[in-house]
């Protein structure tokens, strides 16, 4: 039974992207990781970019064993308003009923969705990852009770039919780096446990890291050890922009439509804008958008940690004009007063001998995305101050 101080908290999240034609009449098994533990697990499904209603015949949650296989006896059916079936209209979301099982922190879960009939355009998250825990070479080794994790893909697709209840892997014949139709897992946790959402682009999704652990994953590993624990959830979109849409919505729209609609998120870390500069955006337009993002978050009781834009000289879309705009935007992030706190990623990654460039050991090779060491340096540059009570 919960207490008066219990609250719903988002323990995993993903931004919504338009990913083309979806699978038809089969089962997808998404493998994700919780941030904080709790009880009353709920799964939120999204059809944000759908061109038709999508019907899920069954939705199950289990614990991965190896590959697509689940630990025996772990797979549980979810319901939606008491029904095992749910239809999600285009542009809508659906939240499952609470599942009365304990949920461990930093723990893999497999959510299996049987898609009934034609699904149309898939809403999901591209560049999904399922790296082993804990991240190598960063922070404490394990939480109490952790076991070595076998390899698993971010998601699996089955042969035709309803295989959501299967605990074996035989029906799941395809590995894919996409999460399907899910954008949040929530649990009930004791206050003041809360969540931080990373609102970003491909750097947030971990591009450049050889281990698959991006800086939000590394930050999550340390944040869950705080007292009280803190969930870090990743709302990054590869190619994402602040001012324009890509496969996902613009960052400003994602804040209101996706981040602020998920429970327990008290802080947003904003690191986005390089793709806008690469497309020719002006510093004034980015700064104005930052102001609007901070004001919208603050009106919802959410604080914003502003991230300085990282060096990118040598990248394919770098220009001198874009570099001047980056410096102007970063000066505003540091001194403009829009944000509640600062994460100076630029200072953490730049080459002192050439500040427009990444330090060589922090460059994955494309002069834009950080290396594994670069992602570690970014995570170390973030300090999430305690919430004011």
TrEMBL record:
Gene3D superfamilies per record: SGNH hydrolase (3.40.50.1110)
PROSITE patterns for this protein: LIPASE_GDSL_SER (PS01098)
Keywords, alphabetical: Hydrolase
Segments passing through the bilayer: none
Record-linked Pfam families: Lipase_GDSL_2
Xref: InterPro entries: GDSL_Rv0518-like, Lipase_GDSL_AS, SGNH_hydro, SGNH_hydro_sf
GO MF entries: lipase activity
Residue stretches making up the SGNH hydrolase-type esterase domain: 198-377
Region (Disordered): 125-152
Highest taxon of the lineage: Bacteria
GO terms under biological process: lipid metabolic process
Protein name in UniProt: SGNH/GDSL hydrolase family protein
Taxonomic lineage: Bacteria, Bacillati, Actinomycetota, Actinomycetes, Streptosporangiales
């Amino acid at each position: 039974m919960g207490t008066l101080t219990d609250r719903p908290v988002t323990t995993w999240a993903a931004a919504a992207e338009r990913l083309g034609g979806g699978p038809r009449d089969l089962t997808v098994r998404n493998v994700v990781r919780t941030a904080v533990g709790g009880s009353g697990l709920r799964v939120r499904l999204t059809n944000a970019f759908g061109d038709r209603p999508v019907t899920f015949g069954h939705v199950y949650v289990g614990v991965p064993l190896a590959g697509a296989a689940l630990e025996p006896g772990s797979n549980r059916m979810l319901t939606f308003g008491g029904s095992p079936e749910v239809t999600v209209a285009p542009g809508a979301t659906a939240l499952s009923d609470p599942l009365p099982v304990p949920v461990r922190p930093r723990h893999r879960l497999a959510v299996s969705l049987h898609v009934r009939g034609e699904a149309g355009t898939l809403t999901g998250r591209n560049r999904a990852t399922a790296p082993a825990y804990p991240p190598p070479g960063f922070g404490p080794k394990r939480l109490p009770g952790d076991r070595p994790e076998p390899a698993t893909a971010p998601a699996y697709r089955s042969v035709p039919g309803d295989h959501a209840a299967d605990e074996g892997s035989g029906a799941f014949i395809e590995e894919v780096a996409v999460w399907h139709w899910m954008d949040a897992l929530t649990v009930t946790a004791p206050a003041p446990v809360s969540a931080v959402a990373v609102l970003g682009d491909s750097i947030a999704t971990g591009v450049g890291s050889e281990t698959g652990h991006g800086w939000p994953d590394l930050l999550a590993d340390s944040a869950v050890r705080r007292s009280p624990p803190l969930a870090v959830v990743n709302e990054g979109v590869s190619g994402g922009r602040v001012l324009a849409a890509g496969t996902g919505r613009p960052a400003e729209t994602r804040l209101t439509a996706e981040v602020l609609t998920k429970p327990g998120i008290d802080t947003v870390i904003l690191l986005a804008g390089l793709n806008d500069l690469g497309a020719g955006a002006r510093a004034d337009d980015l700064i104005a958008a930052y102001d609007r993002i901070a004001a919208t978050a603050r009106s919802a009781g959410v604080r914003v940690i502003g991230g300085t834009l990282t060096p990118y000289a040598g990248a394919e879309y770098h220009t001198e004009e874009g570099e001047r705009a980056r410096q102007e935007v970063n000066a505003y992030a540091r001194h403009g007063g829009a944000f509640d706190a600062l994460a100076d990623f630029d200072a953490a990654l730049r080459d002192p001998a050439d500040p427009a460039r990444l330090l060589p050991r922090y460059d994955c090779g494309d002069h834009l995305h950080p290396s594994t060491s670069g992602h570690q340096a970014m995570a170390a540059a973030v300090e999430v101050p305690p919430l004011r009570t």
